[in-house]
Design brief:
CATH architecture of one domain: Orthogonal Bundle
Number of helices: 28
Number of strands: 10
Structural class: alpha+beta
CATH topology of one domain: Son of Sevenless (SoS) protein, Chain S, domain 2
CATH class of one domain: Mainly Alpha
Radius of gyration: 29 Å
């Protein structure tokens, strides 16, 4: 009968119940499977549906469990390989286990099953042994970096020893030995290459023909965009997806910076581009305003070229640099730009609007990720006509564009999942449902890495010599240069008025966080939860802007003012997996008198059933403080600097103002009363002085 099983569209899988056993929790599903009758098996042309027979199968999916149970679940109860689960496990296990732990458990289970087979040989045990062997083989091929542990390579040696003893007929031992030899050779070669790289570079400079150094004006916008795309695509293809997991790249392991090297390399390149946008504009102190405006205009044209190449990474970097405070405040420079250039800048900026968890950039990426070329549009008739001509040219010439996404979009989602979902259940089991959600994001990233393979640009050495030679500035230097170009006494009110007349809403900026790999918040709230190794490995300005934006359930990626983000939903119509009608992630700071000036924010998941004391209790636990919630009060911080007091027994979900940033503060009631009286006294003093 098994040979005749036929699953078709009528087969349905439905959730049945939750099942628990020692060390694991499962979701049980019932699946209706269709079988053909023997008569139909003998005659494929026979269509006698009256002979159809059905069987209901129970399928168990692990929700949470100990590490041992998670490893055991790599095969189904029938001993078959569960490919979906294997892919999820291998992509995400590093947040709760090490390669050595997983390999040991696989080997221990194989040895245990082998002994059982010797005592009582069963088909199930044989199938499970075969499955474990397949899992190890897939792991070795798919995630070779897990076995790259110089100089001793313990996992590979363990695997080789195990295979020689238990799998003498398998090629696993030979593959492990070959991998050890190759990695050892590569490691030695890298050391030699590093030792002689300086001498080789000098010889290369002597042998090469002299070329006059390039200047910014020498490089065409098209060449500029191609070179940035070449570098961005190369870095993005090298990103190890599991490095993007929130628990890996952002905060946890002591070796986080090293483990997430592929992510940090992409972040570093993003910052390099953004800082050079700022530097090339600000180093023109002696230039006329019109000359400086031409530099800004060229950067906007480069951004448009990047848009046409579907390189959203450097496009975002350039927009961030142009929107940085030292550049954005140059009123006279922006006023000198042609109208169509400003329209173009507005349209490019709108792509990365922070509204609705960057809905625009997400929809655009979904639409164009695997498209042959971008779908360009513009409100300006001239630009629209030009875009239509380019599109037709691409079609006529058979041009196909790859895609480089803004990596921060994925880091946002993964960090939000990490923040909003606990690592462990209340029973102390590993929450594997969290890792299923993470895998959905990693799968999207892998798909886009394939799209990034399409580009076929060659590296221009002279361009990168110029690029690396550009002197960039720190926060204070950039601010001083900007003020030297246009002194601050000209007034911010005029800048706001001019911006409004251009139809452009100025974004909120902090001079300490300009032009960098961005997330969308304006505080350094997550620094307290980032390990020192990662903080030190990131450039100072990067930490200021990138890490601060993680705290709104770590939403990432907008240089403009942040909007409230909601999380957790399985709806297919939602623009991201983190919108829900019954949950928010809010940022809360604690203000005891000795910490009032720090404003360190931490993320709290708010459900639609949470009342004030419940939220305050969560905050106290987050800050590891003992105390009674009744002794504290919860206030939402308003955009104008005011505060909205959440009533003591109210449902916070419905009492808050959801149209603004979900930023809160908790302080003792005594301190709040004192602060309120002080503020009232100040207001009375102002009235008296008037």
């Amino acid at each position: 009968m098994e040979a005749g099983r036929q699953e078709n569209q009528d087969d349905v899988t439905r959730f049945w119940r939750e099942e628990r056993e020692d060390g694991a929790v499962y979701s049980a599903y019932l699946k209706k499977v269709t079988y053909r009758s023997q008569a139909q098996l003998e005659d494929e042309h026979e269509r006698e549906f009256s002979h159809l027979m059905w069987e209901t199968q129970k399928i168990r999916v692990i929700k949470a469990g100990t590490l041992e149970k998670l490893v055991e679940s790599l095969s189904t109860v029938r001993g078959e390989l569960d490919s979906t689960y294997v892919n999820i496990f291998l992509a995400t296990y590093r947040t709760f286990a090490t390669p050595q732990q997983v390999l040991k458990l696989l080997i221990d289970r194989y040895q245990m099953l082998k002994l059982c087979c010797e005592d009582d040989r069963t088909e199930l045990n044989e199938l499970q042994l075969k499955t474990i062997k397949s899992v190890i083989s897939v792991w070795l091929d798919t995630y070779p970096e897990d076995f790259r542990e110089p100089p001793n390579y313990p996992c590979l040696h363990t695997l080789e020893k195990f295979s020689l003893h238990f799998l003498p007929d398998s090629d696993l031992a030979g593959r492990a030995r070959h991998r050890i030899e190759r990695l050892t050779k590569d490691h030695s070669a890298n050391e030699i290459e590093f030792r002689f790289s300086i001498c080789e570079e000098v010889d290369h400079m002597i042998d090469n023909e002299y070329h006059k150094p390039l200047t910014f004006n020498d490089i065409s916008s098209h060449t500029f965009a191609q070179q940035l795309t070449h570098r961005d695509a190369e870095l993005f293809r090298k990103v190890v997806p599991h490095h993007c997991l929130g628990a890996v790249w952002a905060r946890r392991g002591k070796k986080g910076g090293k483990e997430a090297a592929s992510v940090l390399a992409t972040i570093e390149q993003f910052n390099r581009v953004s800082l050079r946008v700022i530097a090339t504009i600000l180093k023109t102190r002696d230039h006329k305003t019109s000359q400086r405006a031409k530099i800004v205009q060229k950067w906007i044209h480069i951004a448009q070229e990047l848009r046409e190449l579907k390189n959203f990474s450097s496009l975002k970097a350039i927009i961030s640099g142009l929107q940085s405070h030292p550049v954005y405040r140059l009123r006279r420079t922006w006023s000198s730009l042609p109208k169509d250039t400003m329209v173009l800048f507005e349209e490019l900026s709108e792509i990365f609007s922070g509204e609705n968890n960057q809905l625009n950039s997400r929809e655009l990426l979904m639409k164009e990720a695997t498209a042959k070329f971008p779908d360009l549009d513009s409100q300006n008739k001239t630009l629209k006509r030009r875009n239509m001509q380019k599109r037709q040219s691409w079609i006529d010439n058979g041009i196909v564009q790859g895609t480089v996404p803004y990596l921060g979009t994925f880091l946002t989602d993964l960090t939000m999942i990490d923040t909003a979902n606990p690592d462990m259940t209340e029973e102390g089991l590993i929450n594997f449902e969290k890792h299923r959600k993470e895998f959905e994001v990693l799968a999207q990233l892998k798909l886009l890495q394939s799209a990034a393979q399409i580009y076929n640009f060659k590296e221009d050495t002279h361009f990168w010599i110029w690029f690396d030679s550009v002197r960039v500035y720190n926060d204070n230097e950039s601010h001083e240069l900007s003020c030297a170009i246009e002194p601050p006494m000209e007034g911010s009110a005029k800048i706001k008025k001019k911006s409004a007349s251009l139809g452009h809403k100025p974004a909120k900026f902090d001079s300490s966080k300009f032009g960098l790999f961005a997330c969308g918040l304006e505080d350094r709230s997550s620094l307290s939860s980032i390990p020192d190794t990662i903080t030190a490995s990131l450039a100072g300005p990067l930490v200021g802007h990138l890490l601060s934006e993680i705290s709104l359930a770590r939403p990432m990626m907008s240089h403009s003012s942040s909007t409230s983000s909601v999380i957790s939903s399985d709806s297919d119509t939602s623009p991201s997996p983190y919108r829900s009608c019954d949950t928010y992630v809010i940022r809360v700071s604690l203000e005891p008198s000795d910490q009032a000036s720090t404003h360190i924010y931490k993320s709290i998941m708010l459900c639609n059933t949470d009342h004030t004391n419940t939220v305050i209790q969560k905050v106290l636990e987050k800050y590891s403080l003992e105390g009674q919630p009744e002794d504290y009060c919860l206030l939402q911080i308003l955009p104008d600097g005011g505060e909205l007091l959440i009533p003591e027994r109210s449902n916070v979900f419905y009492a808050l103002n959801s149209s603004i940033d979900l930023k809160f503060v908790v302080r003792t009631r005594a301190e709040h009363e004192t602060l309120t009286l002080r503020r009232k006294g100040k207001r009375r003093g102002k009235k008296l002085s008037l």
